[in-house]
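Table S7 (text form). Paired inputs.
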Amino acid sequence: MILKVIFDFIISIIGLILLLPFLALMSIAILFESGFPILHRREVHSSSSKTFNFYKFRTMYKDADKRLEILLKNNPEIKLEYETYYKLKNDPRITKLGNILRQLSLDELPQLLNVVFLQMSLVGPRPKTTFELNKYFDKKDHQLLFSVKPGITCIWQISGRSNIDYAQRVEMDLDYAKNRSFIMDMKILFETPIALLKKDAV
């Protein structure tokens, strides 16, 4: 929808301008705590075959991938949790500052750049890595999933977030893609800050 694209672009530009001092302070804090890089780039899909890099403030230690490999290899319970939720509640890979940024979802703010670059939307299914796409989504659902741009926030982020297993997130993402509307987007945007303040929004 053209209205959605225009709305996303304008709000993201305004947001980046207003948040610039805060973004600079967070960048300096990350630099002092754990050095460069300040931003984390993750390759995600815009279609079944096309990818782009989306941005987040780096919240993990630089050797996070190696730490995860060791964790999953030596801890069956942690491996089951990761396979169910695709994240860990008590993740030892996350820095102290990173934990604060994640709890408040401030690590997601650089994705406003992706919206300005027309790669993402403010609201939509969360971006999917190749691993997520292959493991959790049937190929028959790809066309529906990619009929909308991935978003900074989504329906399952206001409905329990980490307490929702990945299978439920898949259903919610596909349901959003099927029934999306501008009014639904406004509802999700309005409820996102409220969800972040809840105790289970980790």
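Next pair, protein 2 of 2.
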Amino acid sequence: MLYILLAVAALALDQWVKYWTVTHLALGESTPLLPGLVELFRVHNFGAAWSSFSGMRWLLVAVNCVIIGAAAYLLVKKIVRHPLGRTAGTLIVAGGLGNILDRVRLGYVVDMFNFQFITYPVFNVADICVVSGSILAAIYYLWFYEKYDKKVRE
């Protein structure tokens, strides 16, 4: 139940921030969030990270669905049982769903967080969830999977 609440909260936060951005900033407009560090800068991303695969909307939806389906399967079937692995999977599912909703509904993903101190792609809450979940998944797999969740063959 805790992981369902985490997924719903992450998805709701993603959609709320995107809604706020669309209703308060024109396309290409920015406003400081943490001056000198991060600004809110409204862009529409028709691709994936760094606008890769731009214009391949349905391919990106399909790939996202496969990844979300795999993560959800691991969680539902309780193949991943350790809390770190479950948190990682939950964040990946929630973030993936957040971006799929945009792609299907709008044809693009609304991005808004822009680092001002380095050149980096503009991103959103869903992206933060996917990246954080992926990092946690790598940590889980490298240091926890074998001890807690690996099935031992007899």
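The longest helix spans residues 83-106.
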